[in-house]
Amino acid sequence: MLTLQVIGRELQGEVVLLTLAHADGIDLPTFSAGAHIDLHLAEDLVRPYSLCGDPKDRQHYQLGILKENQSQGGSLAAHALNVGDRIQVSDPRNLFALEASAGHSLLIGGGIGITPMLAMAAELHAAGRSFSLHYCARSRDGAAFISLLEQAPYADRVQLHFSDSQRLNLTAVLTDVPANTHVYTCGPVRLMDAVTEQAAALGYRPEQVHQECFSAEVETGGAAFEVFAATSGITVQVLENQTIVEALAQAGLKVCVSCKQGICGSCLTDVLEGEPDHRDSYLTDEEKADGDQILLCCSRAKSARLVIDL
């Protein structure tokens, strides 16, 4: 865990750009493009945000955070941060890394989903690798990072798409690409679904298409079941409309959670016995089939009892 200080705050429409640094000016842990950090905004209020700065910069972390209309407290708390405030953050974790073997990287960011793409573009440009970046937003006036992209050293590889003027033509973008292209997309679910579906229709292999979700609709309800936390020696009944995290908390066993939507992996736990009912967007299909891990914030059990390593 790091304690960092807000040394920069810039509002771009509904997005706040926060710059964090160590108060003593020491180097921060390294990160690669696509990584995120967890902000500990208050007790029991931890949220993951993508790092959008240049990975070569060891002095600063930069985050672009959208003020969500349906915020559960995270984005509002982040927008309330001011220069001089101190905040605890996790070390960077990367669940959305670039593929080193890609012949070309096609970056497609929608809305606030542009944030990890900024770090990706900086890393790819510095390495002299082939890439192109497409940024989709409702309008130019409401879009963040426009000036940064237009002044970037890779500006000639950037194309802007606005709903009120020039929309993204996915078929054209996905067709006119070099061999062994890998696609990275982040943003609204409808955009990511469209990219995934169109790429599949055009013959892209599943491993060539990568996406990162900021939010996901997940159904956490279902039949009641029993969970035994083997290390702690605690047994709980998880009720129909209760998550494993909530049941354990009532028994005095607190689990570290961040997104609460099965996206970030912070509550990933080993399964020792029983069959999980996976509801998350974090584990791969192969990992889900193995049945030896579970996201406690949203997933349930197909068996009457689960034994977990907690």
TrEMBL record:
SUPFAM superfamilies from the UniProt entry: 2Fe-2S ferredoxin-like (SSF54292), Ferredoxin reductase-like, C-terminal NADP-linked domain (SSF52343), Riboflavin synthase domain-like (SSF63380)
Highest taxon of the lineage: Bacteria
Signal peptide: none
Keywords: 2Fe-2S, Flavoprotein, Iron, Iron-sulfur, Metal-binding, Oxidoreductase
Residues covered by the FAD-binding FR-type domain: 1-99
Any single Pfam family the record assigns to this protein: Fer2
Entry annotated with the keyword DNA repair: no
Domain (2Fe-2S ferredoxin-type): residue spans on this chain: 225-310
Name of the featured protein: PDR/VanB family oxidoreductase
Organism of provenance: Leclercia tamurae
